[in-house]
Specification:
Blueprint lengths: L3 E6 L4 H8 L5 E7 L5 H8 L4 E3 L8 H14 L4 E4 L8 H6 L4 E5 L11 H8 L3 E8 L9 E8 L6 H24 L5
Parallel strand pairs: 1-2, 1-4, 2-3, 4-5
Antiparallel strand pairs: 5-6, 6-7
Helix pairs in contact: 1-6
Bound molecules: 5-O-phosphono-beta-D-ribofuranosylamine (GRF).
């Protein structure tokens, strides 16, 4: 797999920043968000990367939003699409268009604790080890084939925020390493 990367993000964009700053100097051709005014877009603009927004609130249903997002990503002609803190489940059009080129990073050791509240759910369950997963995206919620995982211990005085910050340190390293390997065209 070579070349062009499109990153999708919804929040602070620290995963995006890790890619921008990584030694491999990835060719990030666009950063897409599902809402305006997020820090991820500011980070992209600061790095001179074109941005786009496909906001579900501007579409009457999820399939129309998915079609618009799919079109917008296709215009970027990416070799790899990275969902890096993009807090939406991609729809069928986007998943079908980019199957095998679409990866996500998740703050838990899948298949444990899928979904939007992985860190809280792991803490509530009382696990002593959680972690980060980078996986290919399929039609399910955090169900696609796992590419790489790394464990993070839960400490006695952890709250959701503290634990998430430690997981994100690992998540950033894991994402950079997976993207670097994919860009080299190596089998994972
Ligand atoms: C990451 O933990 C990601 O897995 C989760 O949200 C966080 C995004 O962090 N879904 P950031 O916006 O890249 O800082």
């Amino acid at each position: 797999m070579a070349g062009r990367i499109c990153v999708l993000a919804s929040g602070s964009g620290s995963l995006l920043q890790a890619l921008i700053d990584s030694p491999m100097q990835p060719k990030i051709v666009a950063v897409g968000a599902d809402r305006p005014h997020v820090q991820a877009l500011t980070r992209a603009e600061a790095a001179g990367i074109p941005t786009f927004i496909v906001d579900p609130h501007e579409y009457s249903n999820r399939l129309d939003w998915d079609a618009a997002l799919n079109d917008r990503i296709r215009e970027c002609e990416p070799d790899l699409v990275v969902s890096a803190g993009f807090m939406r489940i991609l729809g069928p059009a986007t998943v079908q268009s980019f199957r095998g080129q679409l990866i996500n990073t998740h703050p838990a050791l899948l298949p444990a604790f899928p979904g939007a509240h992985a860190v809280r759910d792991a803490l509530d369950y009382g696990v002593t080890v959680t972690g980060a997963t980078v996986h290919f995206i399929d039609e399910g919620v955090d169900t696609g084939p796992i590419i790489a995982q790394q464990a993070v211990p839960v400490l006695v005085d952890d709250d959701v925020e503290r634990l998430h910050e430690r997981i994100k340190v690992i998540e950033r390293q894991l994402l950079v390493s997976v993207v670097t390997e994919l860009m080299k065209g190596q089998d994972l």
